[in-house]
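Q: What residues go here?
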């Protein structure tokens, strides 16, 4: 099948071919005919499968015919959970619609100055791409006219649900014409998404593309068990020295950790920068532009960057901290292995992460193989899931160990009983000689640091 067989406007097909696309992806093959026919659609499709073109090409096809309603308001509205994804969708709309005359695409995002956005909204608009919170502000101030809106797209609806945006989304939808065509794209069709679809869509056509496992086949997944923060930092240094690494994204749990780790990597000579929600839009755009142009080798980010980043040279994704939700794991590692290329996803896990690992493996349908780096072996030895001993009744030795634990409330005494040497003053737990190790300087400063501090990250 080719794009010519999808009955799209010839100028849109020409722009698509000029962009380097020759064969439509499965989601495009199934969604585009249904959307051109005017049906509401709910589709399960992940980033990297061509979903943006799946809804934007038929949207542009609709815009090729002039509207019968005279208004400055948009004819197509796309809602996205993050600013990065909104900018990516706007760029795609401009690229696919470049051959059509006078197609105006604007983005309304949090973090942008209101006067600039007010000026943009005062002009005729064809496609409006927005994050829900900021758009709702403008609607409540009476700055947007939806009288000629024909299509509403909810992109990454599951993520908007997770981030608490659904109430805003429903308020926005209530301000649009009931005659609109509505599209919903989500990673999964869980109960929450089904309820939203039932409220906002009219007898939608359902489209489900590849399973989680099929989409991850081109990404090699590796797992490293870690004892503490020092151990994790040294493993990170090992991964970043991989000769096959071109660009990498390192995911952390908090904004503060992203800044700290990015600073430490920069000190070690890497071209590194942080990306998180506390940065203003100008800083975030500048960082992403630098990444896309190859000026950054390592991006240290929170989950704000898990969706909406499409950079071909990202060869490695490193989960410095495992995500809270299994779906976020898939979106994180989906930043590598783009467009059929291969990629490597490395995850660090402690003994407290066993539940998260099980959820991720259940969600993806794949087992993540653990790896050991010579010289960086973990002291933590995870018990195999099929170990019969884990299902036995506690024996005498186990009961005695528990009684000792109660009798010796002092952690140091308990370590001595079990043969584990406690920390030496000024030395990081699990690291016998770390004074000159990379990435450790910010975390090993005398005995004021508790050996379990790494668990906060």
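A:
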């Amino acid at each position: 099948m080719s794009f010519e067989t999808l009955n799209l406007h010839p100028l849109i097909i020409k722009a698509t071919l000029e962009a380097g696309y020759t064969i439509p992806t499965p989601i495009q093959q199934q969604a585009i005919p249904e959307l051109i026919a005017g049906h509401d659609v709910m589709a399960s499709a992940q980033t990297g499968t061509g979903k943006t073109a799946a809804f934007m090409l038929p949207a542009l096809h609709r815009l090729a015919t002039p509207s019968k309603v005279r208004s400055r308001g948009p004819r197509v509205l796309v809602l996205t959970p993050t600013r990065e994804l909104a900018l990516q969708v706007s760029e795609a709309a401009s690229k696919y619609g470049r051959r059509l005359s006078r197609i105006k695409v604007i983005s309304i995002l949090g973090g942008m100055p209101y006067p600039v956005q007010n000026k943009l909204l005062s002009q005729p608009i064809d496609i409006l791409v927005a994050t829900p919170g900021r758009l709702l502000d403008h609607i409540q101030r009476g700055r947007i006219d939806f009288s000629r809106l024909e299509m509403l797209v909810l992109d990454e609806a599951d993520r908007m649900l997770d981030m608490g945006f659904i109430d805003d989304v429903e308020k926005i939808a209530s301000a649009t014409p009931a005659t609109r065509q509505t599209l919903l794209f989500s990673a999964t069709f869980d109960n929450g998404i089904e309820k939203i679809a039932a409220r906002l869509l009219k007898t939608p056509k359902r489209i489900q593309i590849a399973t989680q496992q099929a989409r991850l086949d081109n990404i090699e997944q590796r797992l490293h068990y870690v004892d503490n923060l020092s151990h994790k930092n040294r493993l990170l240094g090992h991964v970043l020295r991989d000769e096959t690494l071109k660009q990498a994204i390192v995911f952390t749990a908090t904004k503060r950790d992203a800044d700290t780790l990015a600073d430490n990597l920069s000190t070690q000579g890497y071209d590194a920068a942080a990306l998180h929600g506390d940065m203003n839009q100008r800083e975030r755009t500048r960082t992403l532009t630098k990444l896309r142009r190859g000026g950054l080798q390592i991006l240290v980010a929170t989950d704000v960057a898990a969706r909406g980043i499409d950079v071909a040279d990202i060869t490695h994704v490193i989960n410095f901290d495992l995500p809270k939700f299994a779906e976020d794991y898939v979106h994180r590692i989906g930043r590598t292995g783009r467009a059929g290329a291969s990629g490597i996803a490395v995850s660090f896990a402690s003994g407290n992460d066993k539940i998260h690992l099980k959820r991720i493996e259940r969600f993806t349908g794949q087992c993540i193989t653990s790896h050991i780096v010579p010289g960086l072996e973990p002291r933590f030895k995870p018990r195999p899931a099929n170990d019969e001993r884990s299902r036995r009744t506690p024996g005498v030795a186990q009961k005695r160990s528990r009684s000792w634990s109660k009798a010796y409330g002092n952690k140091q005494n308990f370590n001595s009983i079990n043969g584990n040497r406690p920390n030496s003053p000024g030395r990081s737990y699990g690291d016998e000689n770390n004074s000159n190790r990379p990435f450790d300087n910010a975390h090993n400063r005398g005995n004021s640091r508790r050996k379990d501090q790494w668990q906060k990250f």
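A: Context that may help when evaluating the design: The chain has three domains: 3-210, 213-370, 395-456. The radius of gyration is 25 Å.
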